[in-house]
Amino acid sequence: MALVQCRECGREISERAIACPQCGDPKRTASSSRGIRILLGVLVLALAVLLFASGLLVTWLAPNASYPIEIELPQRSVPSTSLQADCIPRDACVSTQLASR
Predict the structure, then answer these.
(1) Domain count of the chain?
(2) In a domain, 49, yes or no
(3) Helix, strand, or coil here: 55?
(4) Any residues with CB less than 8 A from the CB of 84 and at least 6 apart, and which?
(5) Is 87 within the bounds of a domain?
(6) Which domain holds residue 41?
(7) Contact at 8 Å (CB) between 25 and 6?
């Protein structure tokens, strides 16, 4: 087990010590926070790559989906009344409706 000097008080402490027993100066906080920063950086980079790839995919597929789709709807059969059957031209319907009042 090797001994190293404390950065704050200069006392010799074990290289495996988490903090100096005399002054309490933390020894390993910088390395652990550095690991967290690296992990967060990798996650942010992976998220950016994923967003970029999904944007390319949407852009590639969007022109194919933007064309209007033609749909044939079935014609509704409306039951005809005697007034509708008699009124084929519009003027005839108006005169028939006015006469019936």
Answers:
(1) 1
(2) yes
(3) helix
(4) none
(5) no
(6) 1-63
(7) yes
